[in-house]
Design brief:
By secondary structure, the chain is mainly alpha-helical. The chain contains 3 helices and no strands. α1 runs antiparallel to α2.
């Protein structure tokens, strides 16, 4: 990728500002403008992270998280609870 990291950072900053504006003028819980702005942040961040790494071999401390991560975490929590119930000597 041949994008300057500063250009990618400016795109990320703009995406964050657009999300703030969309959130401030939200028209309901599932406003498509907010969803579009949310996805634009993800796209801009991924470009910035890639360009930053390609140019400087550096990364940010940020992680993009999605609904699949939530589902995986919920499944792990349920498994931990189930295993904990089986091993609880008080309930035996």
């Amino acid at each position: 990728m041949s994008i300057d990291p500063r250009v990618a950072l400016q795109s990320l900053t703009s995406a964050l500002e657009e999300h703030l504006a969309a959130s401030a003028s939200r028209r309901g819980d599932e406003d498509p403008a907010v969803e579009t702005a949310y996805l634009a942040i993800i796209d801009a961040f991924e470009v910035y992270e890639e360009v930053l790494y390609d140019t400087y071999h550096e990364v940010t401390p940020l992680v993009i998280y999605d609904e699949d991560d939530d589902e995986d975490e919920e499944e792990a929590d349920e498994l931990d609870r189930a295993e904990g119930e089986d091993l609880d000597p008080i309930n035996d």
